[in-house]
Amino acid sequence: MKLTLRIWRQSGPTGALVTYPLDDLSPDMSFLEMLDVLNESLVLRGEEPVAFDHDCREGICGMCGLMINGVAHGPEKATTACQLHLRHFRDGDTVTVEPWRAKPFPVLRDLVVDRSALDRIVESGGYISAPTGSAPDAHATPVPKQAADTAFTSAACIGCGACVAACPNGSAMLFTAAKATHLGSLPQGQPERWTRAQDMVQAHDDLGFGGCTNAGECIPACPKGIPLTTIAQLNRDLLRSHLR
Amino acid sequence: MYTEGTPIADTKAPSGPIENRWEQRRLGARLVNPANKRKLSVIVVGTGLAGASAAASLGELGYRVTSFCYQDSPRRAHSIAAQGGINAAKNYRNDGDSVRRLFQDTVKGGDFRSRESNVHRLAELSVRIIDQCVAQGVPFAREYGGLLDTRSFGGAQVSRTFYARGQTGQQLLLGAYQAMARQIAAGTVTSHPRTEMLDLVVHDGRARGVVVRDLVTGQVSAHTADAVVLATGGYGNVFHLSTNAKGCNTTAIWRAHRRGALFANPCFTQIHPTCIPISGEHQSKLTLMSESLRNDGRVWVPSVKDDPRPPNDIPEAERDYYLERMYPSFGNLVPRDIASRAAKNISDERKGVYLDFADAIARLGRDVVEARYGNLFEMYQRITGEDPYTAPMRIYPAVHYTMGGLWVDYDLRSTIPGLFVIGEANFSDHGANRLGASALMQGLADGYFVLPGTIGDYLVDGPFEAFTATTTEVEDRVAALLAVRGDRTAESFHRELGRLMWDECGMERDEAGLRKALDRIPELRAEFWRRVRVTGTGEQLNQELEKAGRVADFLELAELMCVDALHRTESCGGHFRSESQTPDGEALRDDEHFAYVAAWEYTGAEPVLHKERLDFEHVRPSTRSYK
Amino acid sequence: MQTLRLYRSTVGKKAVMAVTGVGLLLFVVGHMVGNLAIFSGPAAIDGYAAWLREIGVVWPLRFGLLLCVGLHMVVAIQLARRARKARPVGYEHGRRPQSYAARTMRWGGVVIALFVVYHLLDLTAGVANPHGVQGEVYNNLVADFRLWYVVLAYTVAVLALGLHIRHGAWSALQSLGVTAPRGIALVVATAICAGYLSVPAAVVLGVVS
Ligand SMILES: Cc1cc2nc3c(=O)[nH]c(=O)nc-3n(C[C@H](O)[C@H](O)[C@H](O)COP(=O)(O)OP(=O)(O)OC[C@H]3O[C@@H](n4cnc5c(N)ncnc54)[C@H](O)[C@@H]3O)c2cc1C
Ligand code: HEM
Ligand code: HEM
Ligand code: SF4
Ligand code: F3S
Ligand code: FES
């Protein structure tokens, strides 16, 4: 099949979309494999290949992230860009590929952005203080299955940043809330629950992310189905932490 | 091809009753005064389960830790992709599990090519790993009563595998990453993501630092410390296509090997039987489908090779359920290596073999099958575009794990003083074959418990004198890669090397093939340095340059793997030499001649082999049989 | 200190938006119910208006409303400016049609604000009213809704309010940490639109004259 790609190229402070026609693609290729093919041909022509982030290529590391036709991770629901296959495009389509856009995610080159702001949020409190070797037997604290399931659903976040890319406010609240809800749902996470909510929201705001206004655009963008209820939970925890 | 040097021995392992050895070693290890810990610095390269848990634990102890990884965040290390689970001898099910049993299973699973002391320690620590992870908030699967759930995994008759849906590695890694984040906030750990280690700094006979390249700015710099820990994972990507993440590489351990660290058992590779087959020549990576599928799926191939009909049109009589035929008692559940080899012998890799759920769906109903395997079926459909509920899945083996790695003693120290190696990067605990759910266990045991318990014994002699390390060698190498300006991409060399290794040093190896590979690899390497094309410059984010550097190291490692495979004329675990098999085609071990670890020394020319003898006092070597 | 830290956070600002929004919502509901007095004839509605003044709720109410609107708008503007700063460079490709909430809340709010100004001039001050006699609520209304453009203006405003509430009522709960099905907001919004529009509709259809 044939596709025309319009790809954001940037090596300095600004960039532009550049058009690349591609032929002889197989519908079984993944979107990133298509970029590999393009890159090999660019290298052989002596041009610089398109830089893009990826590692596991199976939808779990959260490294890949592309705005494909204005949609974070492309048109397939609950699918990361690396798991997107060309069979979901029509022969002859024109596809625009852009990097995540947010002030706390500066573009490093082409489609590669710096997402370390997300690490800063976790460092501000997204953990349970459990020094190595100090843990009681794992069965000392049973966890009701429902709490365990809520925790798991929120813990599934891969930190890809698609929620930020899709949010009209450039907010990372879904990411922040996923971690806060994961830890806050478990008995082990209770002692730090209230300070965690305060510290993580503060870090989120200080990093320059926008505020969440419940626009809900992050939900369809999230490849791991993190629910909006996590944001409500974080809101509740934060308010309670102040009003207690 | 190689020369044999003096034997080598693990001098740190205590003797005496095996149950007490770890305790004894911990008591014997000298301690660092808490006030001095702040003055001691440790570099940890890698942030997978091993590296992140080590960085967090060492930071907690008070050492000044500097951490590196090549991804944009420590949380993305390849460990994140592990699906199945993690073993621990908790015996929560009262089904007869114990530390002793896990120890025995692991020694046997490794086909008697691992050290008893190490494996026993691993089994002991397994229990504490689960406690630690639960305390950190790792959301393991639970039952309605609120207690942890377990499942059984290949090679074991007890249910000791803890899991978090199909994302165990992810959840364990996030736990370790969060523990590390806590230390970053506390100021004890400094993290450098998007930074690749390109060389080891050895000063006065001690490992004293690393030379790294900042992958964003391209800046090459040296970092020094009192000790260096490598936790850089496996080198399965030498085969180009594997289930490893794209960036997995051998560079860190290979460069350390070139600086004097011995490389043990490089040819021990594990091939996983149930992966999604290759779909085309641009395939970039292979995806694992959990082994658990074999519990209900039946594996078959058409009786006539290259039968062009779609699978559902092939009548029952013309299907060969070959695993059931060849291994009547274990059937579809034979261990990984056996299932993989059988599949390779019987089919072509584009089409794979069929894993058929029609019987299971008829017997259990679609709902039950969906409840058990729904997410795997979905993943399969996402990748292949085929619906496994209506047509059989196609599966094929793929390279998955490397048991070989840098040689370490009981303290996890390599042959270079001050260089510690943990996780998949070392060779330590799995012998010739790793059991499912044991790699995660080993990575965390190393990082949370073993290394923090042993590294002090070395650091107590520090801090060592300050010095300035040079970076010129690395800079020259980067410049050399950029200077070739040839006409082939690094990727094309990687593809060619991978093909060669898969064909000649893959699931089944023989002398002729290995010799052929040993002829071809040096040629390919020479061609690489004549023809590789790397665009751009060294002073920028340059993924072609990263790739080329990794491929250059794979081209060196591959040769050592073939030498190792060629010299070990027995078959054991994942290493199957077709010359050494029983009359009915099973692996034939040769304990008399090969009950040793092959530790290779780098010389620049022919490698030197140092043998570490393996003794088995507690588990008697036996032959595996699954007929 | 704690309160200040809360107010400074984006989540705190949203809570302010939600609390003031709910306050405004309560007023809007009460006001709508009051308006329905028109169906009981001129005396009822004029009397109702007079009674409100007698019991002295008007000024406290005005004060409360002003405070709510003020805070509501201040935080709305702050959050909107933050959002703009958080995405200095937009996407080249037109995005998938954005959720209607994101598109309408801010502009909808502005439409409502402009309407309220006009509405006060019209029915409270009477200067923009064709009849324009204070206290004669019934006649003022009937005079208004005889003019098609006034009906249109009110209809547009009420629909804008409906849209605002359709997202806002659910959103306020979410902001305050309560997870509720979105359907609730739709029911509230529909009821409010219907209630308000029944008045101009009645005049236009001649039920009230
Ligand atoms: C698909 C898949 C499924 C698996 N499932 C299971 C399972 O269910 N159970 C189980 O027990 N095991 C499983 N395994 C095996 C297991 O995941 C790995 O063996 C284990 O995670 C390795 O951990 P590690 O910490 O040693 O290294 P890794 O997790 O590979 O981490 C390597 C780290 O080193 C860094 N690094 C590497 N090279 C450099 C360099 N040159 N410079 C700087 N940094 C570098 C990387 O950035 C990374 O942080 C699975 C493996 C795969 C591929
Ligand atoms: C004065 C004009 C008004 C303006 C400028 C305005 C503006 C806004 C804005 C920008 C939001 C944020 C919505 C988002 O981005 O998701 C909002 C929310 C809201 N508004 Fe208004 N609004 C106004 C009047 C009203 C009125 C009259 C009501 C009463 C019905 C109201 C009720 C709400 C509610 C309940 C919310 C949701 C609060 C939340 O999301 O937490 N608003 N408003
Ligand atoms: C068809 C719809 C409406 C009708 C018929 C209506 C009618 C009236 C009337 C008659 C008054 C004057 C009452 C008096 O002076 O005693 C009034 C006042 C007011 N109305 Fe409305 N209104 C409508 C819609 C709205 C809407 C949608 C809003 C808000 C968003 C609103 C907000 C107000 C306010 C703030 C006042 C002033 C109250 C005060 O005196 O302090 N109205 N309305
Ligand atoms: S919440 Fe979803 S979209 Fe956001 S970072 Fe996590 S996985 Fe990605
Ligand atoms: S899209 Fe943005 S506004 Fe909130 S609900 Fe999602 S973070
Ligand atoms: S590359 Fe890992 S999630 Fe896409």
TrEMBL record, chain A:
Segments forming domain 2Fe-2S ferredoxin-type: 1-101
Species lineage: Bacteria, Bacillati, Actinomycetota, Actinomycetes, Pseudonocardiales
Highest rank taxon of the organism: Bacteria
Protein name: Succinate dehydrogenase / fumarate reductase iron-sulfur subunit
Nucleotide-binding keyword on record: no
InterPro entries recorded: 2Fe-2S_ferredoxin-like_sf, 2Fe-2S_ferredoxin-type, 2Fe2S_fd_BS, 4Fe4S_Fe-S-bd, 4Fe4S_Fe_S_CS, Beta-grasp_dom_sf, Helical_ferredxn, SDH/FRD_Iron-Sulfur
Needed co-factor(s): [2Fe-2S] cluster; [3Fe-4S] cluster
Residue runs in coiled coils: none
UniProt key word Iron: yes
Boundaries of every 4Fe-4S ferredoxin-type domain copy: 148-178
Pfam families membership: Fer2_3, Fer4_7
Example GO BP: aerobic respiration
Keywords: Iron, Iron-sulfur, Metal-binding
A Gene Ontology molecular function term of the record: 2 iron, 2 sulfur cluster binding
PANTHER family documented for this protein: SUCCINATE DEHYDROGENASE, SUCCINATE DEHYDROGENASE IRON-SULFUR PROTEIN
Family recorded in the similarity comment: Belongs to the succinate dehydrogenase/fumarate reductase iron-sulfur protein family.
SUPFAM superfamilies: 2Fe-2S ferredoxin-like, alpha-helical ferredoxin
Automatic annotation (TrEMBL), chain B:
Swiss-Prot/TrEMBL cofactor(s): FAD
SUPFAM superfamilies linked: FAD/NAD(P)-binding domain, Succinate dehydrogenase/fumarate reductase flavoprotein C-terminal domain, Succinate dehydrogenase/fumarate reductase flavoprotein, catalytic domain
Subcellular localization(s) per the UniProt record: Cell membrane
Entries under NCBIfam families matching the protein: PRK07573.1, sdhA_Bsu
Catalytic-site annotation from UniProt: 336
InterPro entries hit by this protein: FAD-dep_OxRdtase_2_FAD-bd, FAD/NAD-bd_sf, Fum_R/Succ_DH_flav-like_C_sf, Fum_Rdtase/Succ_DH_flav-like_C, SdhA/FrdA/AprA, Succ_DH/Fum_Rdt_flav_su, Succ_DH/fumarate_Rdtase_cat_sf
Pfam families the UniProt entry points to: FAD_binding_2, Succ_DH_flav_C
Catalytic activity: a quinone + succinate = fumarate + a quinol
Domain Fumarate reductase/succinate dehydrogenase flavoprotein-like C-terminal intervals: 494-626
Gene3D superfamilies, per the entry: FAD/NAD(P)-binding domain, Fumarate reductase/succinate dehydrogenase flavoprotein-like, C-terminal domain, Succinate dehydrogenase/fumarate reductase flavoprotein, catalytic domain
Its EC number(s): 1.3.5.1
The entry's keywords: Cell membrane, Electron transport, FAD, Flavoprotein, Membrane, Oxidoreductase, Transport
Family named by the database record: Belongs to the FAD-dependent oxidoreductase 2 family. FRD/SDH subfamily.
GO MF terms held by the record: electron transfer activity; flavin adenine dinucleotide binding; steroid dehydrogenase activity, acting on the CH-CH group of donors; succinate dehydrogenase (quinone) activity
Single GO cellular component term: plasma membrane
GO BP: anaerobic respiration
Membrane protein topology class: Peripheral membrane protein
Major localization listed first in the record, in broad terms: membrane
Protein name (record): succinate dehydrogenase
Keyword Electron transport: yes
UniProt entry tagged with the keyword Lyase: no
Residue span(s) of domain FAD-dependent oxidoreductase 2 FAD-binding: 42-440
Enzyme class of the recorded protein, top EC level: oxidoreductase
TrEMBL record, chain C:
Signal peptide residues on this chain, from the entry's feature table: none
Classification via InterPro entries: Cytochrome_b-558, SQR/QFR_C/D
GO CC annotations on file: membrane
Membrane-spanning residues: 15-39, 59-80, 100-121, 147-165, 186-208
Entries under CDD domains matching the protein: SQR_TypeB_2_TM
Domain of life: Bacteria
Keyword Transmembrane: yes
Alphabetized UniProt keyword annotations: Membrane, Transmembrane, Transmembrane helix
Name of this protein: Succinate dehydrogenase / fumarate reductase cytochrome b subunit
Organism: Umezawaea tangerina
Organism phylogeny: Bacteria, Bacillati, Actinomycetota, Actinomycetes, Pseudonocardiales
